[in-house]
Design brief:
heterodimer; A: alpha/beta; Rossmann fold; 4 domains; 22 helices; 10 strands; B: 444 residues; Arc Repressor Mutant, subunit A; 14 helices; 20% strand; globular; NEDD8-activating enzyme E1 catalytic subunit (chain B); ATP binding (chain B); NEDD8 activating enzyme activity (chain B)
Amino acid sequence: MAEPKTKYDRQLRIWGEQGQAALEKASICLLNCGPTGSETLKNLVLGGIGSITVIDGSKVEEGDLGNNFMVDESSVGQSKARSVCAFLQELNDAVKAKFIEEYPEALIETNPSFFSQFTLVIATQLVEDSMVKLDKICREANIMLIFARSYGLTGFVRISVKEHAVIESKPDHFLDDLRLNNPWPELRSFAEAIDLNVPDPVVHKHTPYVVILVKMADEWAKNHGGSLPSTREEKKEFKELIRARMRALDEDNYKEAMEASFKVFAPCGISSNLQRIINDSCADVDSNSADFWVMVAALKEFIEGTGEAPLEGSIPDMTSSTELYVTLQKIYQAKAEADFLVIQRHVRNILNRIGRDSDCISKTMIKSFCKNARKLTICRYRPLEDEFNSPVQPELQKYLTDEDYSSIAVGFYILLRAVDRFAANYNSFPGQFEGEMDEDISRLKTIAVGLLGDSGCNGSTLTEDLINDMCRYGAAELHAVAAFIGGIASQEVIKLITKQFVPMSGTFIFNGVDHKSQLLSL
Amino acid sequence: MAQSRSRDLDKLLLRHGHLVGPNFEPGPDLRDDLREYARVLVVGAGGLGCELLKDLALSGFRNLEVIDMDRIEVSNLNRQFLFRLGDVGKPKAEVAAKRVMERVAGVNIVPHFCRIEDKELDFYNDFSIIVLGLDSIEARSYINSVACGFLEYDSDDNPREETIKPMVDGGTEGFKGHARVIVPGVTPCFECTIWLFPPQVKFPLCTLAETPRTAAHCIEYAHLIKWDEVHSGKTFDPDNPEHMQWVYSEAVKRAELFGIPGVTYSLTQGVVKNIIPAIASTNAIISAACALETLKIASACSKTLSNYLTYNGVEGLHTKVTEFVKDKDCLVCGPGVLMEMAASVTLGEFITLLEDHPKLLLSRASVTHRGKNLYMQAPPVLEEMTRSNLDLPLFDLMDKVPKDVVHVTGTTSKSDKKTSSLRKLRVVFKGVDGVSDMDTAGGA
């Protein structure tokens, strides 16, 4: 076996060893292993997911050879689940792969407790009725669930989880936590000891901008009754004051100070997003609360005391002498450590209060929570039945009337639901078989209009073009579309299992016509 | 009747549709033409290439070729699903082609284990569509210039339909990626929007030498400065584990000296080799979008992407389509740089002109006209064969046509980095276009 670290090197650089460990512990159940399902699993097996169970009751047919890479000629007539499972095992022998030759619909009906053994269920190509039933089962058992479906040139992906809390959301662009608008005493006194008028030009051009800005903000506050620049004029003036201190054009540290001056003007305190999280009713914890919410409760106490979140503790690279930079780094780290200790104390007190072991949340976990406190994210997903029975009216209206971008995507959303009603009425999907095209088109149209009415959108219509093409698709599962949908689904599974990055919200509607796909928040 | 293998694809190819491309003619002939006549080249057999070959083989194409110069490494196995541990060290193109042919009956894939520059231009002209699954800007730029090089314009400066060589390009990095359709002369080409790929920022040498602050600074010091000081004349080889280990231990020493945390072996590899994180799922998404567009271009079974799709899965899921516009003055996909000259100018003089031309600045140029090599800088055999042409007038070498397109390949330097570039030139000879054209004769 290859050294796993080398094999997984390119992904360890994204989610680290912790993320990898979470994947390797996860147990995944796949319902239906057509191309959409098998492509989803392929991406997870390659990445070293712990175990997979493939559930499909069908036999490989000639037609499957044209859209599924994981079945081949020799498997025609045999169990599709077996064939797909065998190919997946070949990709990665570290993965425990097994299959059950059974129709998912039957399992959902007869054996709901079956699903509680898994970390996450990937349900592909299910019709509405089965989706709603499975959703209830998985919510009840607290099992993560993701739906994926490919249908002609469209399809969707939808996560269904009661609540998913992310500590390591790892956003791409997030303002660093320098506290230039509100320096703590140690940072202020470090800056005070440095002379910006130092005669040595080499020292002058290697004074980090953090020091420059803390000192100049202090100076400004002294001359302005304790307040920092707030009006446009004042901000401009502040920048000019920095410029005036530049001695030569090549002083990158002063250029950086001017560019970063907005960090001095930024309001103190926490973001509205974080405010919402600490105000969440789940932050009133009891003995049943998740560790995450216990930490949020501690964070809330911290913020009530200090007005700020705990300091992140890292600083970006900036023009500086090595010595000043390293010292600055240590000052930020020390403050972050001090904030962590306060939070840890709060966590212990809270745990005591709710009758749990005060050490049951690990130090590493609390540290990570503190470091990411400003970036916490909560994702919640409506039960599927609620969305289907009462979609968010204003949103749906907005999508339906937005001709510019999403009208095709929302049209597909309605039609994807309409084809399931069609199938429930007529025992086949519109256009699935040759010869009844015109009749199917008018039937589908009637159902779609009815569906719009049921959703409270009387008067809205879908274009003939779209209805016609939906019938043309005839429930085809095209490989390229399945690979796209499967790719999206596996990406979201990775985010859910590693608890890193932010999973998608709403329902992703794939528009394979011109790729103007959309996320609908219904 | 037995079920058809193209059960699902037939719905799209045999049935009339509304949201389709121009000249869509559904029917069995379309399906058969796709099988028989469409020829698709996949450039790159890595993370995207493996997916692309599978996706195209299951999208009705039967004539595929793939070109890649790399061999399989262990760190490919987390995403390049056609490769197994036992394949490590073998050429990617060959293994990928074999694996797909084993599983998809009827498809033929010809592998090319070589550099993209090693192929004659005619090789590329043979394909209906070129699909790019690359991780380098230089390689994209090269293929783009080759494909755009085939483009001819009519006398009204409109692109001639039959000379258009469409490309579909994909790229990924971590949870992000893009897919785009390039129809030379119609959509922007890679060069028109080169600003989408900003050059990589490098650390100033004085920071590395004097004021290191981060682990990466210490690593680059060991890699770029210390290595040369200690190993005079020996080039650093990033694939040699001993070399990497040496850089790592030097970086650790330097970091300790300055009190800088964070140097690890993995980071050392990442910085030195400029490793881009890569995962199976993003590659699957982007390749699928590219394959679908390839099918749509070849069959017109649906409208196409116009013309640039971005995907970002870091925070939620964001996809966006942007319609970029063509740069009218693009040196690569435009009608070509106009070169007016006297009929007496020799091929050698012409090559010198290219070096000084402000829009070109092309050195060591090789020149071809209508597929004929007029002068080749390499290989030596060809150089020798074509050397005598240098003293002949270009006009004579071009069969005395008054104006025509020539292709030149040479080296351009952009911010100290030399890249090989292909340019299309519109050569017009003064004083030969018709008998009574006297006013330009004085220029001879």
